[in-house]
Amino acid sequence: MNGDGWAPDTMNGVPVSGPVTTYRILGLMEIGTAEGTLNLASSRRKALLAALLLEANRPVSVDRLMEAVWDVKAPATARSQLHICVSQARKELAEIGLPDALATKAPGYLMAVGEGELDLHVFERRVRDARRAAAEGLPHDAAALYTHALSLWRGTPFPEVNSALVRSCAERLASRRLGVLEERIACELGLGRHKMLVEELEALVEEYPIREPLQAMLMTALNGSGRRAEALEIYRQARNRLVEELGIEPGEELRALHQTILRDDGPSPAVVPRTA
Questions:
Q1: What 3-state DSSP class applies to 16?
Q2: Is the dihedral of CA 38, 42, 43, 49 positive or negative?
Q3: What confidence tens digit (pLDDT) does each residue in 109-149 have?
Q4: Structural domains of the chain ordered from first start
Q5: What does residue 18 show for φ and ψ, rounded to 5 degrees?
Q6: Is the whole-model pTM more than 0.85?
Q7: Cα–Cα distances in Å, from 50 out to 24, 58, 170, 248?
């Protein structure tokens, strides 16, 4: 693990130093350089920088930035106040050696980040690499890459930002993380790591009780660990919850898995979550 907060990339098996400048948004927002860490005390500047980093290297319109800062209650002077907020953010960024990070770019502003500097970009690249490894029949490499990608997450994105727009984006990011986590678990199930996954899956099912892919993975892990009766009980609980809370029966894949375990006619079918 590098001092920048995420594991370094490698070249020919040799770790490559991480970036000096880091932008971290997969948890509390942090911006740091060799010259220091940005003091994110202002709620408005937090919302501004969050909205810009969510679209890093792409221009964000003034209207969208005003929505991020003020939600739907923007004052009549919002545009001029936003310009002041941008000027203050630029001054603070310059103090830690980033004088050109926040640029004016029609129809608004742009936050420029370098290769490997933003944890979200590193996460997305590693997920792409993991999916490529899985497609090329390299499941061990894929599992490791998924694990590295998920290690970048330090918590819920932007918990300190009081902005409906930013919170909505944070929820979508969290949903993407969950999808990638399911891909990693499916990959490890394919490697026969059933017993080691049971505890993790039990915690996930408790946290997301009506998410069918997780129910299926837990059933698969239990059945593969020789705990067939418990796997069947998970299905019973899942079905009851779906019927009682949503008024629906389990999906076709979960029902098919249940029938396979009931028949006890071989390994449970592979659980392959849909990729985003």
A1: coil
A2: negative
A3: 999 999 999 999 999 999 999 999 999 999 999 999 999 99
A4: 10-111 (1.10.10.10), 195-276 (1.25.40.10)
A5: -75, 170
A6: yes
A7: 10, 13, 10, 38
